[in-house]
Amino acid sequence: MRTALIALIALVACGQAPAPPADLAREARTPVYDYRVVRAYPHDGRAFTQGLFYLDGDLYESTGHVGQSTIRRVNLEDGRVVQSADIPPPLFGEGIVNWADQIISISWRSGIGFRWDRATLRRMSEWRYPGEGWGLTQNGREIIMSDGTAQLRFLDPETLAEQRRVTVTDGGTPVPRLNELEWVNGEVFANVWMTPMIARIDPTDGRVTGWIDLTELVRETSGASRDSVLNGIAYDAAGDRLFVTGKYWPRLYEIDIVPVPAK
Asked: Does pTM surpass 0.85?
């Protein structure tokens, strides 16, 4: 059944199937977790959310689409954009991550990323990488990058040179379309694009240790647009708070992860 779940996720990512139903996910051998909404916050419903992280009381968010791509500092409580910088066309903005006093960003198919001053959102320098750019996070030692495949790249934060890769698998089956990333208590959390599922990944070997099933939250929030998918994970390490949102979502949610009772 695990193989069936991953196959269905792959079809969803290619637009060939409906979202994985919760009952199928819960029959997989890998643990599946439910969620509880702790609190809902306003979120810019015009934001095509690509990257998200929480730091020192603020949310930082990147948005996509050519000519609309931005990096923003956002007030958590009211969703107000406090500060914003444009990502220059023709780039399509993707993930962001903090490192020291900087923000590192990537773009979709251009192979171009930037370093930004986090305080001013001033663009400082440019860097290059092969392939596509999707999501970013960091573990305190390395920058971790997704590229739309089942692989995670680990980069040196000073040079941004690639050091290694791991292939993310569930029961030996690769998990494709890994998107927005977040480092949470020693694991990588990853949105799987076009699905309501978040993969919990062991960064040492790429093994999926669990799935967080947000099917109902996506159904309640995303609306009719096919683009309004789950995409955006942020973790407040000091407060042990987990936040999720999506593209064009009018709300951002603080959630608790809840084990699914055994049947």
From this structure: yes
The gap from C-alpha 176 to its chain's centroid, in whole angstroms, comes to 14
Read off the pLDDT of residues 102-127 as tens digits, 9 standing for 90 and up.
999 999 999 999 999 999 999 999 99
In the structure encoding, which two tokens stand for residue 163, read together? 């050091």
Instruction: Assign domain 29-259 to its CATH superfamily.
Output: YVTN repeat-like/Quinoprotein amine dehydrogenase (2.130.10.10)
